[in-house]
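Field reference: sequence -> structure
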Amino acid sequence: MTTTRKSGLAKALAEQLRKDRGYLYPEWEMAAEVDPDFMTAYNEVYKKCLKEEKTLPLKYRELIASAIIAFRGEPDSLYLHLKRAMEFGATKEEIFEAFQATLIPGGALTFLRGLRALKKILEEKRRAKGTQGRGKR
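Structure field:
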């Protein structure tokens, strides 16, 4: 495969990754350049796990992923997955309860990480709402 063709495929794949998730880590963009076949396969697995609606609604799939991510201590990923959970309809109460459920098996830090991410999202929403209200004068 020519370098130009590989570069074009990598850019298209990076855009597909961004579209499927709503975000794109720079590391995934690099990985798409290095091995587009691998990242294509990885994206297919991602879509099966966290994009396709099946018996378990997507908001709950994202909450499960968020709990595991919180346990692993990845605040950036946690923030992005909680935002997706909310986009799929998760309420702040559901998110809070999901992290309550992590307290015993995951520990207080897992619970705390979840609450920090939720707090950040809610504060952003409040600021955005305040900005919208000021523009209507």
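Note: The helical segments are 3-21, 26-34, 36-50, 58-72, 75-87, 92-100, 103-106, 108-134.
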